[in-house]
Amino acid sequence: MKTLCPSILSADFGRLAEEIKIAEKAGADIIHCDIMDGHFVPNITFGPDVVAKVNEITNLPLDVHLMINSPEKYVKSFRDAGADYISVHIENNYHINRLVNQIKDLGAKAGIAINPATPVKTLEYVLEYADFILVMSVNPGFGGQKFVTNSLNKVRELKKIITANDYKCLIEIDGGIGPANIKEVSDAGVDMFVAGASVFKAKDMAGAVKEMKKLIA
Ligand code: DX5
Ligand code: ZN
User: Fold this and answer.
1) Which pLDDT band holds residue 119 (cuts at 50, 70, 90)?
2) How many CA atoms lie within 13 A of 123 on its CB side?
3) What are the helix and strand counts (H, E) for the chain?
């Protein structure tokens, strides 16, 4: 099943519970939480305490995207806060194989995120151990940015390798996804779709979720 994962980065944090409920009721599958430290990316968001609150608000699984340095120090805190999926970037982690195992040992699904300029080839010797690959289709740090178009080729390349080797790894895409491009991205082989602004900045949030769910069905 293909899943829609609204990213609360673009939510109104004063009405967070209300907005998450709207997305959940409309058919969202997973809630995506973006963790930024002001070092790996030029923005700061929130930590495990907020994730724990989100976990109280919703029954949906939580997908925690760590855009932070030294994630090995924090993965347990996020797992304890309720993260079901945890992704870490390959660009700032020398020991990605160890980190993937660490996340799996905590009982969460382990994802590896790659920035727009990072080639698929980097994943060659870790792909078989990952539960999912998060293909960044914008430069991480902010919501509401424009989709980097060659991410589509990257997804196709990755999908080919996964299929050829019969790996179980899913493909997630994150950045600039909305009703206008979600179908094309889905056809390229994506399984999990992060959508921030296109859900939480939409005039009709429930309508946006329903429309995108229909397009990936
Ligand atoms: C960007 C984050 C994304 C962000 C996507 O660094 O990783 O999850 O919320 O936002 P949109 O869908 O608005 O591009
Ligand atoms: Zn994200």
Assistant:
1) very high
2) 30
3) 8, 8
**Which token pair is 38?**
């002001």
115 lines ligand 1 (CB under 6 A): no
| Alpha-carbon distances of 170 from 45, 68, 164, 193, rounded to whole Å | 26, 22, 14, 11
The ranges assigned to domains in the chain are 3-216
Residue 49 annotated to the active site: no
Domain 3-216: CATH superfamily is Aldolase class I (3.20.20.70)
pLDDT band, very low/low/confident/very high, at 36 (cuts 50, 70, 90): very high
| Residue-wise pLDDT tens digits, 54-76 | 999 999 999 999 999 999 999 99
Q: Is the CB of 6 under 6 A from ligand 1?
A: no
Respond yes or no: is residue 187 known to be catalytic: no
**What's the one-letter identity of residue 134?**
L
